[in-house]
Amino acid sequence: MARVGGVLLVALVLLTFSEICYGGNVNAERIADLLQRQARSADGVVRLDDESLRRFANPSPEPRPYSLVIFFDASQLRDNAELRLEELRREYGLAASAHAKGSTGGSGKLFFCELEFKQAQASFAAFGVSTLPHIKHLPPGGGGLKEADEMEQSDFHRTAEGMISFVEGKSNMKIGPVERPPSVSTKQLLVLAGGLLVTAPFVIKRILAKDTVLHDSKFWCLGAVLVYFFSVSGGMHNIIRRMPFVMPDRNNPGKLLFFYQGSGMQLGAEGFVVGSLYSVVGLLLAFVTHFLHEIRSKAAQRFIMLLVMAIGFTAVRKVITLDNWKTGYWIHGFWPNSWRSSFICYSQAFCAINMSFISQERDSEAKVFLLFTVHTLLVLQFFPFSLPLIWKEAFSCWQSEVTRLFYQLVGQLSPDACLEEGIRFHHIVGNQGWEE
């Protein structure tokens, strides 16, 4: 029995020693593979799929001696302007590069990785990731994927520095500074400097002769129009938030959306349309104030003025309609209460003057026709305004006066003509709606 016990003890010691050696070899192989993948990556991010994640995140046979920071990505959602996955991925790459280049004592202890949805759907489900953007930190040890720490959006503020702050707080490691690539490379600076040296004599000569674009008034006029277009089109909003010109429809991927319904967001095409409408109004106003008076024909001036008013009214109304469609709010015009009585007196005087001209007409049928004409002109006069109360009061005064005069006029007609014209009149006057 003693010999059997001794053999079992030796076997147990050898088995334990082999497991330790095997586990150490497994971790060493995994770290070496991760370091090799990190070196091959342009920005230091290790690209994983379902199979490689199971290998590197598996806590057996020995717990992980390293931690993994995982960025969850989906190529089919890169075009979504609200998620801004491409920008976040670029910032994540800068954070990974800072760790690979400047981390103190962090080689083999921390790895920045990414999972793409099409290649790692099972891993997305294992981590419980259902929304993007998403970043998780899987600490070292024997814990499973569910124990990974999620990075809240408020923690990283969509910048590489914020991501590094989150990782340093979870891993207790110091990561090097972020090195952002310069906007202009050294070669570009050299080419630019050479071009300036070559063109400097010619430019100085033209400046002294006052023969440059900056001395041309048309250039400044065009610049003013562009600044106006940029200010009214929401160009600064689109640049700051990097809004796309168009976006695909979620319900119909083959269809493009040029207008986004909802406040707080607009696409580039929408800003271009609104800026164009406002620019048309501004240019027409500039034409009227600076060039219209040079036309000698009064009839042509009146026609152009009416045309400009119609185009301006249509353009502004299109913008208001678009705002109503986006926000649900509508713009109404209201006059002060002190103006109401003056407006009603004006409308009554307008009707009385027109009635005096009608009463001087000898032809009864012509009188009835003029009544209809006055009615139409008065309605068209009030039509552009959203003044329901004033409309109703002014129209009631006008309707009573016209009705009284109408019966005086149609009394001169034959009974059949009187009946026919009376039906026509009440059909026109009685059916005028004031819902607007």
UniProtKB/TrEMBL annotation:
Record-level GO cellular component terms: oligosaccharyltransferase complex
Domain of life (superkingdom): Eukaryota
Keywords: Coiled coil, Endoplasmic reticulum, Membrane, Signal, Transmembrane, Transmembrane helix
Biological process per Gene Ontology, one example term: protein N-linked glycosylation via asparagine
Subcellular location: Endoplasmic reticulum membrane
Membrane-crossing segments per the record: 189-208, 220-240, 272-291, 303-320, 369-391
Record keyword Transcription regulation present: no
Sections of the chain in a coiled coil: 71-98
Membrane-topology descriptor: Multi-pass membrane protein
A Pfam family this chain is assigned to: OST3_OST6
Signal sequence coordinates: 1-23
Keyword hit for Endoplasmic reticulum: yes
Family: Belongs to the OST3/OST6 family.
Function according to Swiss-Prot or TrEMBL: Subunit of the oligosaccharyl transferase (OST) complex that catalyzes the initial transfer of a defined glycan (Glc(3)Man(9)GlcNAc(2) in eukaryotes) from the lipid carrier dolichol-pyrophosphate to an asparagine residue within an Asn-X-Ser/Thr consensus motif in nascent polypeptide chains, the first step in protein N-glycosylation. N-glycosylation occurs cotranslationally and the complex associates with the Sec61 complex at the channel-forming translocon complex that mediates protein translocation across the endoplasmic reticulum (ER). All subunits are required for a maximal enzyme activity.
Designated name of the protein: Dolichyl-diphosphooligosaccharide--protein glycosyltransferase subunit 3B
Lineage: Eukaryota, Viridiplantae, Streptophyta, Embryophyta, Marchantiophyta
